[in-house]
Write a structure and sequence with these properties.
Length: 152
């Protein structure tokens, strides 16, 4: 299977709670999406997709502190959110298989603060950070997320 080594690498990284320490989307199928997130911008920009084993991290991090989960309903997945322990100002939202715990996707956002309230509704994960950032992340296309930033 193409990219099977990349997929295995991602799942190993997930079990070890390792991830790129930058704005990134990690897909369980073996790909990273790196992107820019301009200040207060509602969408990801300058997306670059690459197989996981082609990525050379400047910094990697480990340890994800989960602050909120959503597993209700008949869907075969659950969502969780929290903080990236390497730096408390970075938040994460992840979608994983309920039964096996395999990663479907992991979204890391710099400077959003931890995501502490997580809900799944209408085909999207809705995540609220401790500083008021709200992310609406389509389950099937997490790269098309929408962010609402708090007014100052």
């Amino acid at each position: 299977m193409p990219y099977s080594a990349d997929m295995a690498f991602i799942q190993e990284q997930w079990r070890d709670e390792a991830y790129p320490r930058e704005n990134s989307l990690t897909l369980g199928n073996g790909f990273y999406c790196l992107f820019d997130l301009p200040d207060q911008h509602p969408h990801l920009t300058n997306k670059v997709w690459l197989p996981a084993l082609d990525y050379r991290a400047q910094e990697t991090c480990d340890c994800l502190a989960t602050l909120g989960t959503a597993a209700d309903g008949p869907q075969p997945f659950q969502a969780r959110g929290g903080e990236c322990a390497a730096y408390g100002g970075d938040g994460f939202v992840a979608l994983q298989d309920k039964e096996s715990g395999r990663l479907i996707w992991l979204l890391v956002l710099r400077d959003t603060n931890p995501f502490s309230r997580i809900e799944i509704r209408e085909g999207s994960v809705h995540a609220h950070s401790t500083c008021g950032v709200i992310a609406r992340i389509p389950v099937d296309r997490p790269d098309q997320l929408t962010l609402a930033w708090p007014s100052d």
